[in-house]
Amino acid sequence: MTDSFSTSLPAPDGSAPDGTATVPEPAFLDGNAAAGPLRELFTVDLTAAVGTCASCGDAGPLGGVRLFTQAPGLVGRCPGCEDVLFTLVRSERDTYLSMKGFTTLRFPTAG
Amino acid sequence: MALISRGFSGRPRSDEPDLPPGQYLTSDFPVLSAGPTPRVPLDTWAFTIVTEAGERHSWDWKAFRQLPAEDLTVDLHCVTRWSKLGTSWRGVSLDTLLEDVETAAEYAHVRSYGGYTTNLPLEDLLDGQAWIAFEYDGEDLAPEHGGPARLLVPHLYLWKSAKWVQGLILTPEDEPGFWETAGYHIYGDPWREQRYAGD
Fold it and tell me: Is the pLDDT of residue B101 over 90?
C-alpha cells in the first residue's frame, strides 16, 4: 500500500507519481471555446496568445489548452502536464479569473 | 400538494420545500469535474489523515473496508443549481476514522487523487455529518462519481464532497481549496446560498 500524499499530475507515460492511472476523458473542449468569455474581459483575442505553463514549461496558444466546462467554472489545463493553467468563475455579480498556472502570456503589442 | 405562498419578502425560494434557495430538482446524476478522471487501483489506494503535529493515520483498502460502514440516504445540492433528493450511499463515518486522532485543529484540508482540494471546518465532518462513501445505489462507486471512494458532506454544496478522496490534513487555519481559491465560498452552505466568495 502507499500512503504517499503526492497529488501531483501524471507523468509523461500517463501514470501519476502515486501509481494511479489517469485516463483523459473526452469531456473537455479545446481552449478556443473560452474565446467568448475571455473577450468580455480583454480587448485582445487571448486564444492566440502564447502561454507558458508554470508547472512544466511547455508553451502554446491559449486556444490549445484542454478546457473543462462541465464544472462550476471553466478550467483550462496544460495539454502537456494537465496542471491547471487558468480558472474562470462567473456569478451574476462578479467574475473571478485566475491565471496562476501561467508564468507568462505573450501576445503582439497593440499599435 | 397544497400551494403555499411564501410572500414577497426575502430571497426567492424554490417551489419545493426540500430544496435550498435557487436550486432545481433533477432525477439524473450530472457528472461535474474540473479535470480528467483518475483511475485509482484498490491495491494502491489509501486514505490518510495527517494531524497538525504531523501524526499520520492511514488505512489501505482492506483496512478501510473492515471498518464499520453504514447505509445512508441524503440529499445532494450542487452549486450549479441542481439538487438530487434521497440518494442512497454506503460509507464509513468520519466519526469512525477520526475516533483515535488526537488534534486541536479546527479545519480540514481535503486532498484527492488527481490533485483536487477543498476545505471545511473539522466540526462539519463530525457528529454523523460526513462519510467516506464507497457505494452508490447498491453498486461500487463509479470513477466518474468519485470511486473508489469519495467524501460525502451532504449539508454543504457538493463541491465540498471531494471525489477520489485521498486524505485530510488537519490545520489550525482554514486553507482555501480548488474552487474556494477560484471564487467560490469558503464554507458553502446551500441553505444560506453561500455560492461565491462574496455571498
Answer: yes
Neighbours of B24 (CB within 10 A): 11
What's the mean pLDDT in B109-124?
Answer: 98
What ipTM goes with this model? Answer: 0.87
**What is the per-residue pLDDT across A36-92, written as a single tens digit (0 to 9) for each?**
888 888 878 888 899 999 999 999 999 999 999 999 999 999 999 999 999 999 999
**By CA distance, what is A66's nearest residue in B?**
B35
Question: Which chain A residues are closer than 8 Å to B181 by Cβ?
Answer: 98
Q: Does B168 touch chain A (CB under 8 A)?
A: no
In chain B, whose CA is at the least distance from the CA of A20?
A: B40
Residue A111 is predicted with a pLDDT of 65
Q: Do B182 and A16 touch (CB under 8 A)?
A: no
Nearest CA in chain B to A16: B114
Q: Domains in chain B and their CATH numbers? A: 45-192 (3.90.420.10)
Choose among A23, A77, A94: nearest Cβ to B37. Answer: A23
So where are chain A's domains? 32-101
In the structure, what pLDDT confidence band is assigned to residue A13 with cuts at 50, 70 and 90?
very low
List CB contacts (< 8 A) between A94 and chain B.
183, 196-198
C-alpha distances (whole Å) from B90 to each of A91, A108, B150 are 34, 55, 11
Question: How far is Cα A101 from Cα A77, in angstroms, rounded to an integer?
Answer: 9
- The secondary structure of residue B180, as a DSSP letter, is H
Closest CA to A72 of B160, B88, B164: B160
DSSP B8-31: SSSS---SSTTSPTT-EE-SS---
